[in-house]
Write a structure and sequence with these properties.
The complex is a heterodimer of chains A (about 325) and B (about 280). By secondary structure, chain A is an all-alpha fold. Chain A has helices at about 1-10, 20-25, 30-60, 75-80, 85-115, 120-130, 130-135, 135-145, 155-160, 175-205, 205-215, 220-250, 250-255, 270-280, 285-290, 295-305, and strands at about 60, 70. Classes of the chains: A mainly alpha (about 325), B mainly alpha (about 280).
Chain lengths: ~325, ~280
Amino acid sequence: MASAHTQALPRPVLRPRPAFSLRRWTEREGVFSWLMVIPPTLFLAALVGYPFIYGIWLSLENRPVAQAGTFVGLANFITDLHDPVFWQVAQNTFVYTFSATALKMAGGLALALVMNQDFKFKNLIRAVMLLPFIIPTVLSTIAWMWILDPSFSVINWFLIHWGIANPGPSWLGNPSIAMFSLIMVNTWRGLPFYAITLLAGLQTISPELYEAATIDGASTFARFRYITAPLLKPVIFIVTMFSVIFTFSDFQLVYVLTRGGPANATHLFATYAFDVAMSGGQFGLGASIALSMLPPLALLIAGMAWYMRGEKT
Amino acid sequence: MAVERRGWHVRAVKLWLPLGFFMVFNLFPFYWMTITSLKPNSELYSRKIMPLVVYHPTLEHFINLLTETSFLRWTYNTMLVAVVSTAISLIFGVMLAYPLARMRFAGAALISFAVAATYLVPQPLLFIPLADIINHLGLGDTLTSVILTYPTLLVPFCAWLLMGYFKSVPHELEDAARIDGATRLQTMFRIFLPLCIPGFISAGIFAFTLAQNEFLYALIFLTKTDVRTVPIGAIAELVRGDVFYWGQLMAAALLGSIPVAIIYSFFVEHYVAGLTSGGVKA
């Protein structure tokens, strides 16, 4: 017994290594992580990755709706390049994206600076200001459709009533005014997002910087130019990137307000692709129009990233 | 006295004037929506009377909307789709965000890049192939088609937002649970996720409003009255050819906006936190 006791102390490693244990295996960090990540990744691969690749394939086919397609190489893209409407669509999309983004940025920054002061009911006013961004776009666009109605536009009622114009402009019926109207509505919807995000950015800037600058005699403009603007730049970059992507690929506003008319003056890539694919039944050609969004969009974002190089952290 | 008066003027010019302008600009369409829905047709289609007020308010358009169209059905569909796709997106969002934010594993960078990339893929790039795929699967005109596709828009967003939130939670509690022998799954469910409720509310509200807002997929996949959502129903069925049922359109727009507005008003702070986290923390 005594000898057994002395032997028990330095017990050698005789415990057999357990056979493969599922439980222990899943407890490993890498395994656990991958088990978690795989289902959502497969989901996104199936419903984003696969359609994306399939879209590229479709764009290389002549594919009438509900029929088998035939491979035609780059013929659809060549058709696009010879289509005057396609070029008008490209121009419209750029005009729309640049104007609306610039207006949203300027207006959003102005609103953010205004709201960065102390005043009563600040949180309430901020919440209310965001409404255009919260309410489903199509529903608020219905209100705009009535505001811009050819016969009963409330804007025109005032223009006529005050003797400024009679009859008032046809907000959605005149090609150049229609584009202006769309830009206005897009700005209306996107401006609050800019404003609230920039406001949050402004609030992260330490007030001490402004105090120090004021003591050194910096003017209001100088404080904005040398403190606010550089510190806000990363936030502006992110917001602008989102805005550019979603304005460039906008569909809802145009579909509801003008369906691309009058005379294609307000067609964007998305609505034109929709028309060709869904109304015209030419899936392949439509896919090629939709895909044409990608290179300019990628260039825009790359350009912005290049402009911002070295700014982020 | 002079200083005080000057202060008041400056404040009016720097604060109240621009604030008032933006308030009117931002809110006028909602005001217009509301009063139009209350106007009788005689006022609606009159070019003579002052349009900014209602002289004889009526609920006629609301009653017609609720009795003559499938508006209630559309509302039910919209809610069902929004709730289910938000739930799916939160679950998938956690499954992506938890490992990416809290663990180290080979391939993490690749996965987070893929998630960011899917976030930035604009919908119009995918709708044509997706329409074909949904047709092949025989899911056209079913709510399943949108319940399946909405999460593709919401999951990357939820994952991104939750990752930011998860990273801000300290590690100590999880470490303690692990030392006491809890499995990784137990640690996640019992210790970690309950700490992140505010993050879920932010992501959930955001996903819910995005799902309510979606138009393109619903327009393409849902072509029958019974399966339509509110925006599609309003655009497709309250505009017949050249005839616009303006009163009903406005009533539909107003009623369709109310659920979102109510939920938003309860969780404004969470919403704003979610909205700004993407831009400010990045």
